[in-house]
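>> received
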Amino acid sequence: MSKATSTTSNLTTTSMLTIIVILVTVSTTASYYAVNFSHGTSTSSATTASSTTVTSTSGQPSSSVSTTAGHAGNVTLGNDPNAAVYDSANGYVYVVNSNVFGEASISVVSGMTVVGNISIGRGDYSSMSSMVSDPSNGDVYVASQFTSSVAVISGTALAANITLAQNPYALAFDPQNGYVYSANYGSNGVGSTVSVISGTQLAATVKVGSGPDTLVYDASNGYVYVGNAGSYYLSLISGTKVVGNVTVPYGTFASAYDPADHYVYVTTAQAASEGNVTIVSNETVVANLRAGIFPSALLYDPADQYMYLIAAGEPGPQGISTVVAISGAGIVGNMTVGNDAQGMVYNPDNQEVYVALFGPNQVAIISGTKVVATVYAGESPTAIAYDPSDHSVYVVDYGFVGPGAVTLIPSS
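>> returned
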């Protein structure tokens, strides 16, 4: 079983894709366009423009947003998409189609075209951190808890399927040695190893704490920091050896690196409880901050030099998510974004952060410490990625009670 399976994990959808173009105009003069690739049989139709509001951090409406839908067409994509990663070597976006009751696959997307569809076997691909790309050669690695393996994708083909001793959950790439590290959470959190992968081969297995579930590379010291969900410490790996430990609260979940301050941020929490973010410099804890209910994701913004944190909130339709902005070791903003935030991505074109909102089928757009817009995506957005080659944000829409989707939001 997966550590944190999405509420959508027991649903399947059909595999036809629709293209819908949506124009969203914000009263602040910014414009956002969404191109939606959705599963199911397409229906050409014109939709009457409608209005909604964007809520500011004060809770008052700050701007009016209207949407207009038009043009439809068909392409093919797999079932149950819930993770995506951009590959800078070839300019493709790779989307995992979990197909939870059948054969999983990877859709390879270039702009508005699916250029490949690769079968990777039945598996559990429920985490955005289960995908990583190697920019040196363009290979994409995908971890499957169900089959205890890591698939290696080269271009539009399956290059290898690496079998591991324990179920992998999260992956990280080390540009210094070219290794891919796999945190092997194991079955129900009983794993205790990190696999070190070189190319398409297993190079080493490293013993760490209980239930490793998140990894991040620190460019300032060359260490890979491993969060151990079942232990009270991080394991620090250099190459293929553990070189140190850092004490943190119980229940690690997400991690990220701040290249400006050379800090590593790690969230810890029990499900649906008040969480914490621990800030680490080398092997020293700099600060522990309260991070809201269930801090589930982190993202660094190089323009503002903020670390953004999603506090997902209580589970279910009534749970409201917030995004916390952290500068160095202090909180500088706290923004309400909507129901059930799933993931974030930074867009360098406009220096804004995009947040996928599963509940309202929207993407919230943040500039600094303010929500400046919301854009309608497809049904139930679960993951998000940015493609600098076509200057678009790709939103993976699972399709909770209807067709799944991949939605493109160009920067302008």
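>> The longest strand covers residues 16-26.
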